[in-house]
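User: Run a structure prediction on this.
Assistant: Running it now.
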Amino acid sequence: MISRWAQFLLLVSSTRYSLSSTIVPPLYRYDDHEQCLQSNSKAVYCVLVINLKTDTVDPLDSIRIELGFRRNELEWGVCVADCEQELAGFSESERQRLYYPKFTINHRNMFPTNYWPEKVEPYNLTYGKLLNSCVNNRLQRDYNLTQLGHSKIWYCIRIDPPEQQNTGLDWLTVLFLAIVITLTIATVGASAIDLFDGRHVKGNVVVSCFAVKRNWMRLLQDPKTELYRDFGYIDGLRVLINIFTVSLHCTMTSVIMSLYNPEYAEKIMKNRLMLMLTSTTPISVQNFFVISGMLLTVHFLRDIQRNPTFDLGYFRTKIINRLIRLVPVYYFFLHFSLVGDGLVSEPLSPNGQRSVTLEQRICWRHGWKNFLFVNNLPADEEKCFAQG
């Protein structure tokens, strides 16, 4: 077991020294978007999903669990001006030869492509065939590939002139700023009250939730309650499970993004230790909920023993205290998902455009479920603020 851990840590630590990918054609290829967009005021940069039609069966379509990237699906970022220049000397018949029409694929894209109609439809009508022929020309010219692929515009980026840029604040941004101000006032105010009059507000839920010094001391102090003596070890297990689950989800997120060397990521994910860890993720999440439920039950039974004649006000107080602690911070991050790109004045990179605005568009459609705390009830494939 120790040798397995050593191999895994060595594999991870050598990431910076790994060679570039040898997959041909490359799964990810991006033209310089900054140079493209700065070339002129009307420059357009598009990110494409390229599907290559193959006669062989894709191993990732089997019923077995396979780890790897599809070799017949590429993600390329293309500067439209460069494509226009590359194909300037091509005749119409040559362009038509390089164009490959749409065909039925037996899998779906990891991310939906219909979230940016204003970033797709106008450009697809104007540049769709041009980019399709341009990509196939590059596949033949740069990689000696005889096979052609169909290119689908995922989204396009352009720098709008200042007069067309929306510099105003919408109501979501105003609400986000209001939450930020509320959290700031609550934190500063609770910290000041706790510092100068902490004894008299010892049981105040707002001060307990937002006072920095009080929470820092609670984090570091060694609990001496009877409950902790009986269940401290299992609460510690819950913390370790939480750290383990978050770490694995961060690893999964890094695989979703464009990678310099997809082969290296495949090598890590196929490591036996990594396979063992990832296979236990669903069980670890369930264990976390079971432990949390057990600890809540212990608290509940302890309160019943202290006050056997409690009423419904007991539950009301517990729920209100929990909402005061969680809702402001939860809504802060939820609103950040809704207005994230509006808070950035600089143009986003292609990957930034996807990672920031994709979740924003999903939340525009499904965010109301998060506000009402029912987002876990429907079986939606597209979840807003899933990390919440």
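The chain has a mean pLDDT of 80.
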